[in-house]
Amino acid sequence: MVPDTPLRLAAVQKALEDIVAPVLPPDADFAREQLALIVRSLALVRKQIPQEYAFHVHDAHDFSAFGSEVAACLPDAHPVRGELTQAIEDVRAIAPPVVPDRTALEQAVRALRGAIETAVQQAGEDAATLRAIGPVVLEHTRRQTLLERAWVADTGFDRDPASLPLPETILYSAGETPR
Amino acid sequence: MDSKQHPTREWIDALRLRYPTERTIDQALTRKLQARSGPPYVPSPVSEIATRLERFFAHAMPGARVSQVAPLGGGASKEQFSFTLAQPDGTEARHVLRREPPESVVETHRLREFQMMRAMAGTVPVPDAPWVDAEGQWFDRPAMISRFVEGVTKAPGSGGNVTGLGTGFSSELQDALGGQFVDLLARIHQFDWQSADLYAFDRPEPNSTAGVHQVINWWERIWEEDSFEPMPIIRYTAQWLRANAPPIERVVVIHHDFRAGNFLFDPATAQVTAVLDWELAHLGDYHEDLAWTLQEGYGYRDAQGRFIVCGLIEQAEFLERYERATGFPVDPRKIAYYSVMNTWKSAIIVLATGIRCVIGGKSHQDILLTWLAGFGHVCVDTLLQHLERAENGS
Fold this sequence. Notes:
The complex is a heterodimer of chains A (about 180) and B (about 400). With about 180 residues, chain A is mostly helical. Chain A has a domain at about 100-180. Chain A has helices spanning about 5-20, 30-75, 80-95, 100-125, 125-150, 165-170. The longest helix of chain A has about 45 residues, at about 30-75. Chain A starts with a helix and ends in an 8-residue tail after the last helix. Chain B has about 400 residues and is α+β, with helices and mostly antiparallel strands. Chain B has 3 domains: about 45-145, 2-Layer Sandwich (Phosphorylase Kinase, domain 1); about 150-210 and about 255-330, Aminoglycoside phosphotransferase (APH), C-terminal lobe (Aminoglycoside 3'-phosphotransferase, Chain: A, domain 2), CATH 3.90.1200; about 210-245 and about 330-394, no CATH class. Chain B has helices spanning about 10-20, 25-35, 45-60, 110-120, 170-190, 210-225, 230-245, 285-295, 315-325, 330-360, 365-390; strands at about 65-70, 80-85, 90-100, 130-135, 145, 250-255, 265, 270-275, 280-285, 300, 305-310, 315. In chain B, the strands form 4 sheets. Chain B has a 5-stranded antiparallel beta sheet with strand order 1-2-3-5-4, sandwiched between helices. The mean pLDDT of chain B is about 95.
């Protein structure tokens, strides 16, 4: 996925700071104040986005533990005990046990993509291997491009946006082999 | 760690060796890499541009006066400023300064653009380009000055996305501009470049694939230099292009971005007033230009399913008129080959170089470049279709 969201926001922030802010009229105090807050909010969000999912998972584990401690203090027959226990189980059923480090994951996937790219490049120097590898590369590109197009459909460049699936219908089956 | 953001001399030298291409293209790409570790783009105050213009003209045209300096909108790849130049004899004219940002979505050589525009004057309407600062001696970064030409790239109120992509024309404008559009391309391709002062350009050997391989090297080197996220399809296509390269039978001037958005016309008379954006021009096979102009993303399909090239003229009419005007036969297999190559190049421009500019904060149009990445994925989808068609011979 290029550009990722933090990079997009960096470009937005830069355009506001470099291009828009200097041309605001000197007496537009309210607009200047709002723009300053927008820029600071963007800077904040850029730092937060990579950690946001981990924050949610942290909450899931932390509040599960906390809820269990609260439940342990309740008498067995207390009327809220069943509801509380069910809510804890609902969260535990969804929350992954460990959150991968997003930056490490991104780097590892990028390295894997690079290794595949190098393999394709070097194998492709031989005509027979190039023919053999072609269908595999094209089929994967077809799947990947469908996701990428769906991801950025709102930019308005796609010739057939109505045919695109919602990105989430592809993303939430990511654990399965997409065949 | 993204080592491409801090290129070593050894890495740059290895790339130059691995991907031999034209001399001045090599110079432009090498200069880009050597400056990559430097500071990001910071807009120059208009007063600074005015001072640089005044210093330049004190040298180039003593007695001339510069006034009304203002930034111009548009220009995805270069900064543009308009200004009025009063010459010592009292005549006044608006001009345009085109200056490179620290890194651009297309890294090109100002001397090439300058020479090609001067060479084409009189063959097709182009802005008069009297001055170039190819090494950035006067303007801090390489720059070129041309006369301002009146005209518009699209009719007021017409649709379209950024940079002229998907620009729509009324049927009246299609009737008036479609024929001119083809005839201008024909004149570019018929131009006698061998008699022109184009020393910045390498001349491909006719009836050989060497010139095609130079173009593949040019763009694969850019992918190697700029890509952030590896994409195996880009490498596969590079190898496919090498394996299937056709010889260049007739060497012509290739504009390389001949499409709606890159010419100006007078909305009152519907006459083309200037062909713009010569920065990617080179010498090669005319099918390369034809396939560029025929790209799906630049046109649309009408109610009958016919493809309207650049929103201006139906595809069959475009090709027939071109063949009549030039006498050059259009080979569908070469169109298929160059459709693969051009779509591949477009994907490299927006998904590698555009993103690399944003990572370094190097351009004046970072926000536009992130937006254009959406076009890149459409390019890859189109690339798939072109590869399959070329493989199947359909």
